[in-house]
Amino acid sequence: MGQMIDFSRPDGRKTKGYFASAGAGRPGIVVIQEWWGLNDQICGVADRFARAGYNALAPDLYEGRVTQKPDEANHLMTGLDFPGAAHQDIRGAVQYLAAQGGKVGVMGFCMGGALTIGAAVHVPELAAGVCFYGIPPAAFASPADIKIPFQGHFANQDDWCTPAAVDGLEEAMKAAGRSAQLYRYDAAHGFFNERRGDVYNADCAQQSWDRMMAFLGQSL
Predict the structure, then answer these.
(1) Mind spelling out the 3-state secondary structure of the chain?
(2) Number of structural domains the chain divides into
(3) Is the entire prediction scored with pTM above 0.90?
Protein backbone atom coordinates (compact mmCIF):
# COMPACT_ATOMS: atom_id res chain seq x y z
CA MET A 1 0.00 0.00 0.00
CA GLY A 2 2.75 2.42 0.97
CA GLN A 3 6.17 3.14 -0.50
CA MET A 4 9.64 4.26 0.50
CA ILE A 5 10.17 8.00 0.14
CA ASP A 6 12.85 10.59 0.82
CA PHE A 7 12.05 13.43 3.21
CA SER A 8 14.04 16.27 4.74
CA ARG A 9 15.31 16.56 8.29
CA PRO A 10 15.50 19.97 10.03
CA ASP A 11 19.24 20.03 9.35
CA GLY A 12 18.57 19.81 5.60
CA ARG A 13 19.79 16.25 5.19
CA LYS A 14 17.58 13.80 3.30
CA THR A 15 16.56 10.53 4.90
CA LYS A 16 14.16 7.71 4.04
CA GLY A 17 10.95 6.32 5.43
CA TYR A 18 7.95 4.20 4.57
CA PHE A 19 4.95 6.40 3.73
CA ALA A 20 1.37 5.13 3.57
CA SER A 21 -1.04 7.81 2.38
CA ALA A 22 -4.66 8.35 3.35
CA GLY A 23 -4.94 11.57 1.33
CA ALA A 24 -4.35 15.29 1.60
CA GLY A 25 -5.76 17.00 4.66
CA ARG A 26 -5.84 13.83 6.76
CA PRO A 27 -4.16 13.72 10.19
CA GLY A 28 -0.73 12.12 10.37
CA ILE A 29 1.03 9.58 12.56
CA VAL A 30 4.75 8.88 12.76
CA VAL A 31 5.34 5.16 13.38
CA ILE A 32 8.63 4.38 15.12
CA GLN A 33 10.24 0.99 14.67
CA GLU A 34 11.19 -1.62 17.24
CA TRP A 35 14.87 -2.44 17.67
CA TRP A 36 14.63 -4.86 14.71
CA GLY A 37 14.59 -2.01 12.18
CA LEU A 38 12.09 -0.83 9.60
CA ASN A 39 10.79 -4.28 8.73
CA ASP A 40 7.62 -5.56 7.06
CA GLN A 41 5.73 -5.63 10.34
CA ILE A 42 6.29 -1.93 11.00
CA CYS A 43 5.42 -1.07 7.40
CA GLY A 44 2.25 -3.10 7.91
CA VAL A 45 1.34 -0.96 10.92
CA ALA A 46 1.76 2.15 8.76
CA ASP A 47 -0.51 0.60 6.13
CA ARG A 48 -3.09 -0.17 8.82
CA PHE A 49 -3.07 3.46 9.91
CA ALA A 50 -3.59 4.58 6.31
CA ARG A 51 -6.60 2.29 6.00
CA ALA A 52 -7.92 3.92 9.19
CA GLY A 53 -7.60 7.38 7.65
CA TYR A 54 -4.17 8.57 8.81
CA ASN A 55 -1.18 9.51 6.71
CA ALA A 56 1.55 7.37 8.25
CA LEU A 57 5.32 7.71 7.94
CA ALA A 58 7.82 5.30 9.50
CA PRO A 59 11.35 6.79 9.37
CA ASP A 60 14.15 4.35 8.61
CA LEU A 61 16.28 5.04 11.68
CA TYR A 62 18.80 2.28 10.87
CA GLU A 63 19.24 3.43 7.25
CA GLY A 64 18.28 0.15 5.63
CA ARG A 65 19.56 -2.26 8.26
CA VAL A 66 17.08 -4.87 9.52
CA THR A 67 17.64 -7.96 11.66
CA GLN A 68 15.83 -10.82 13.33
CA LYS A 69 18.67 -11.55 15.77
CA PRO A 70 18.37 -10.08 19.29
CA ASP A 71 22.12 -9.57 19.69
CA GLU A 72 22.35 -7.66 16.42
CA ALA A 73 19.22 -5.67 17.25
CA ASN A 74 20.72 -4.68 20.57
CA HIS A 75 23.91 -3.61 18.80
CA LEU A 76 21.94 -1.49 16.34
CA MET A 77 19.84 0.09 19.08
CA THR A 78 22.78 0.93 21.33
CA GLY A 79 24.55 2.46 18.35
CA LEU A 80 21.62 4.74 17.52
CA ASP A 81 21.93 8.46 18.21
CA PHE A 82 18.68 8.87 20.18
CA PRO A 83 18.76 12.70 20.37
CA GLY A 84 19.56 12.85 16.65
CA ALA A 85 16.73 10.43 15.87
CA ALA A 86 14.25 12.54 17.84
CA HIS A 87 15.38 16.02 16.81
CA GLN A 88 16.15 15.18 13.17
CA ASP A 89 14.60 12.00 11.73
CA ILE A 90 11.39 11.97 13.75
CA ARG A 91 10.90 15.74 13.70
CA GLY A 92 11.50 15.71 9.95
CA ALA A 93 8.83 13.03 9.60
CA VAL A 94 6.43 15.11 11.71
CA GLN A 95 7.06 18.16 9.54
CA TYR A 96 6.54 16.12 6.36
CA LEU A 97 3.16 14.88 7.61
CA ALA A 98 2.13 18.32 8.88
CA ALA A 99 2.65 19.64 5.35
CA GLN A 100 -0.10 17.23 4.23
CA GLY A 101 -2.56 19.43 6.12
CA GLY A 102 -3.52 17.73 9.39
CA LYS A 103 -2.42 17.43 13.00
CA VAL A 104 0.34 14.90 13.66
CA GLY A 105 0.88 12.32 16.40
CA VAL A 106 3.66 9.86 17.09
CA MET A 107 3.64 6.23 18.22
CA GLY A 108 6.15 3.45 18.55
CA PHE A 109 7.01 0.06 19.99
CA CYS A 110 9.83 -0.97 22.34
CA MET A 111 12.76 1.23 21.27
CA GLY A 112 10.18 3.18 19.31
CA GLY A 113 8.11 3.56 22.46
CA ALA A 114 11.07 5.14 24.23
CA LEU A 115 11.60 7.43 21.23
CA THR A 116 7.89 8.29 21.28
CA ILE A 117 8.39 9.76 24.75
CA GLY A 118 11.53 11.49 23.54
CA ALA A 119 9.63 13.00 20.62
CA ALA A 120 6.71 13.99 22.85
CA VAL A 121 9.16 16.00 24.95
CA HIS A 122 11.42 17.42 22.22
CA VAL A 123 9.37 17.83 19.01
CA PRO A 124 7.19 20.95 19.27
CA GLU A 125 4.95 20.23 16.25
CA LEU A 126 3.43 17.09 17.78
CA ALA A 127 -0.19 16.98 18.93
CA ALA A 128 -0.26 13.55 20.66
CA GLY A 129 1.86 10.53 21.53
CA VAL A 130 1.16 6.81 22.03
CA CYS A 131 3.86 4.64 23.58
CA PHE A 132 4.00 0.84 23.51
CA TYR A 133 6.28 -0.74 26.15
CA GLY A 134 9.27 1.60 26.00
CA ILE A 135 10.62 4.26 28.38
CA PRO A 136 13.80 6.29 27.73
CA PRO A 137 16.40 7.34 30.31
CA ALA A 138 15.14 10.42 32.15
CA ALA A 139 18.32 12.26 31.17
CA PHE A 140 17.17 12.08 27.53
CA ALA A 141 13.47 12.71 28.10
CA SER A 142 11.55 12.81 31.36
CA PRO A 143 7.88 11.80 31.21
CA ALA A 144 7.26 14.73 33.55
CA ASP A 145 8.04 17.03 30.61
CA ILE A 146 5.36 15.62 28.30
CA LYS A 147 2.89 18.44 27.64
CA ILE A 148 0.79 16.88 24.86
CA PRO A 149 -1.99 14.26 25.19
CA PHE A 150 -0.27 10.96 25.94
CA GLN A 151 -1.33 7.32 26.03
CA GLY A 152 0.80 4.34 27.08
CA HIS A 153 0.40 0.57 26.66
CA PHE A 154 2.59 -1.67 28.80
CA ALA A 155 3.03 -5.38 29.51
CA ASN A 156 2.97 -6.86 33.00
CA GLN A 157 5.33 -9.66 31.91
CA ASP A 158 8.17 -7.42 30.75
CA ASP A 159 11.76 -7.59 31.96
CA TRP A 160 12.90 -4.63 29.79
CA CYS A 161 10.20 -1.99 30.24
CA THR A 162 9.35 -3.37 33.65
CA PRO A 163 6.17 -2.76 35.68
CA ALA A 164 8.37 -0.87 38.17
CA ALA A 165 9.56 1.43 35.38
CA VAL A 166 5.96 2.03 34.36
CA ASP A 167 5.14 2.88 37.98
CA GLY A 168 7.95 5.43 37.88
CA LEU A 169 6.64 6.95 34.66
CA GLU A 170 3.15 7.25 36.13
CA GLU A 171 4.42 8.77 39.37
CA ALA A 172 6.62 11.28 37.51
CA MET A 173 3.73 12.45 35.36
CA LYS A 174 1.35 12.74 38.30
CA ALA A 175 3.91 14.67 40.36
CA ALA A 176 4.27 17.13 37.48
CA GLY A 177 0.51 17.50 37.14
CA ARG A 178 0.44 15.69 33.78
CA SER A 179 -2.53 13.53 32.90
CA ALA A 180 -2.16 10.43 30.77
CA GLN A 181 -4.04 7.33 29.73
CA LEU A 182 -1.91 4.37 30.87
CA TYR A 183 -2.93 0.76 30.29
CA ARG A 184 -1.32 -2.43 31.51
CA TYR A 185 -1.88 -5.82 29.93
CA ASP A 186 -1.39 -9.34 31.24
CA ALA A 187 0.94 -10.08 28.34
CA ALA A 188 4.60 -10.18 27.37
CA HIS A 189 6.83 -7.47 25.89
CA GLY A 190 6.07 -7.23 22.18
CA PHE A 191 2.46 -8.39 22.50
CA PHE A 192 1.34 -6.20 19.57
CA ASN A 193 3.73 -7.78 17.05
CA GLU A 194 1.77 -10.39 15.10
CA ARG A 195 4.97 -11.65 13.47
CA ARG A 196 6.28 -12.90 16.83
CA GLY A 197 4.25 -15.91 17.77
CA ASP A 198 6.15 -16.38 21.03
CA VAL A 199 4.79 -13.14 22.52
CA TYR A 200 1.89 -11.98 20.33
CA ASN A 201 -1.42 -11.66 22.16
CA ALA A 202 -4.26 -11.05 19.72
CA ASP A 203 -6.78 -9.91 22.34
CA CYS A 204 -4.41 -7.42 23.96
CA ALA A 205 -3.23 -6.19 20.58
CA GLN A 206 -6.78 -5.52 19.41
CA GLN A 207 -7.77 -3.88 22.68
CA SER A 208 -4.74 -1.58 22.59
CA TRP A 209 -5.40 -0.70 18.93
CA ASP A 210 -9.02 0.19 19.70
CA ARG A 211 -7.97 2.35 22.64
CA MET A 212 -5.33 4.06 20.52
CA MET A 213 -7.80 4.76 17.70
CA ALA A 214 -10.25 6.35 20.14
CA PHE A 215 -7.45 8.45 21.68
CA LEU A 216 -6.08 9.61 18.33
CA GLY A 217 -9.57 10.37 17.09
CA GLN A 218 -10.00 12.77 20.03
CA SER A 219 -6.48 14.20 19.91
CA LEU A 220 -5.88 14.64 16.18
Answers:
(1) CCEEEEEECCCCCEEEEEEECCCCCCCEEEEECCCCCCCHHHHHHHHHHHHCCCEEEEECCCCCCCCCCHHHHHHHHHCCCHHHHHHHHHHHHHHHHHCCCCCEEEEEECHHHHHHHHHHHHCCCCCEEEEECCCCCCCCCCHHHCCCCEEEEEEEECCCCCHHHHHHHHHHHHHCCCCCEEEEEEEECCCCCCCCCCCCCHHHHHHHHHHHHHHHHHHC
(2) 1
(3) yes
